[in-house]
Write a structure and sequence with these properties.
363 residues; alpha/beta; Quinone Oxidoreductase, Chain A, domain 1; Rossmann fold; 2 domains; six-stranded parallel beta sheet; 17 strands; 26% strand; binds cyclohexylformamide; binds zinc ion
């Protein structure tokens, strides 16, 4: 069918809204009509070719919509269901059967191959040329998408669907890291470096599980004010105070989450860890090397990475929807809506920091 999509054609370039042809869903696939889609920094890092996936490509991996059609092998999902789209996984490898699907052995093939795993494209332009699609098994910068059983998560119908897409990536990454990996308790001091969508979700989740002390670190005062409202007990404004001194004044931290990927912040996060403390790396930037002092690490400190909050999306996404409905995970405070046609303004507002989580809507 004819669809409208935002196509990334050139590195560093703007998105262009175009009419494309979407394939019929196969036996294992689902056709979803998108209501809204979040914009994540990972989409933008493909445009910048920090993640070098070939262009032209339809990005988008935080979709929310309504199921239109399901293939013959799909079960548990039916036309009319409200769904949130997330990363795609195989369901058969050791990681998937071990309940850690974010480390699926087929992750690159199922999320970044630019088409179906068998190599067939899901998108063509009007001249019949294949356009990259199936990004995170969805390519949801479009009003319709082909998705898969395992990355299409049914959600309750009384929740505002247009707000829920980012639960498929950014918000579940921050929340899952807290809930599934770090599990802070009432005596834990947890510091979150960077108060974008992922960091704010981590702050909200830490508050939801009553972490003892929640420290938000950023260089933007307005973000830190919001972080306080969402649950931070302490804030460090790196534009106004020395980071290492401020962390020292807190007596160090048990847990740190870096969402920035900035080597100097990561070094400070690791440097602030108490013995047996853990620092989780979630973000990447263009600088990918960091220098660390080995000796303090030997005293039981841990540095590790986490993908997608190490979550089972079928469990975490409905749980976060419930928390939103109960007022415990107020993602509406972080989100701003843009019609698809204004995607380039949404991207500019994300880059400038004006909007924490832009959400594209399909009228
Ligand atoms: C991604 C980031 C790059 C590695 C896979 C998961 N998360 C989504 O934005
Ligand atoms: Zn993402």
């Amino acid at each position: 069918m004819r669809i409208q999509a935002a196509v990334a054609h050139r590195p560093h370039g703007e998105f262009r809204i175009e009419e494309l042809e979407l394939a019929e869903p196969g036996a294992d696939e689902i056709h979803v009509r998108l209501v809204a889609t979040g914009v994540c920094h990972t989409d933008l890092s493909v445009v910048e070719q920090i993640m070098p996936i070939p262009l032209p490509l339809v990005l988008g991996h935080e979709g929310a919509g309504v199921v239109e059609k399901v293939g013959g092998n799909v079960s548990g999902i039916a036309p009319g269901d409200h769904v949130v789209l997330t990363f795609n996984t195989c369901g058969h490898c050791d990681a998937c059967t071990d309940d850690h699907p974010a480390y699926c052995a087929q992750y690159p093939l199922l999320n970044f191959a630019g088409g179906r795993p068998d190599g067939t494209p899901t998108l063509h332009d009007h001249a019949g040329k294949a356009i990259g699609g199936a990004f995170f098994g969805q390519s949801s910068f479009a009003n319709h998408a082909i998705t898969n059983q395992r990355n299409t998560i049914r959600v309750r119908r009384d929740a505002p669907l247009e707000l829920l897409g980012p639960l498929g990536c950014g918000f579940s990454t921050g929340a899952g890291t807290v809930l599934n990996v770090l599990k802070p308790g009432p005596k834990t001091t947890i510091a979150v470096f960077g108060t974008g969508a992922v960091g704010m979700a981590a702050v909200m989740a830490a508050k939801a599980v009553n972490a003892g002390r929640i420290v938000a670190v950023d260089r933007v005062a307005s973000r830190l004010r919001l972080a306080r409202e969402l649950g931070a007990t302490d804030v460090i404004d790196t534009s106004a105070s020395d980071l290492a001194d401020s962390l020292q004044a807190l007596g160090g931290v048990d847990q740190a989450i870096d969402t920035s990927g900035v080597p100097a912040l990561i070094a400070a996060a690791v440097g602030a860890l108490k013995e047996r403390g853990t620092c989780v790396l979630l973000g990447a930037s263009s600088q990918q090397e960091v220098t660390l002092n080995i000796l303090p690490l030997i005293s039981g400190r841990v540095i590790r990475g986490v993908v997608n909050g190490d979550c089972d999306p079928a469990v975490l996404i409905p749980q976060l929807v419930d928390w939103y409905m109960e007022g415990r995970f107020p993602i509406d405070r972080l989100s701003a809506f843009y019609p698809l046609a204004e995607i380039n303004r949404a991207v500019a507002d994300s880059h400038s920091g004006k909007t924490i989580k832009p959400i594209l809507t399909f009228g």
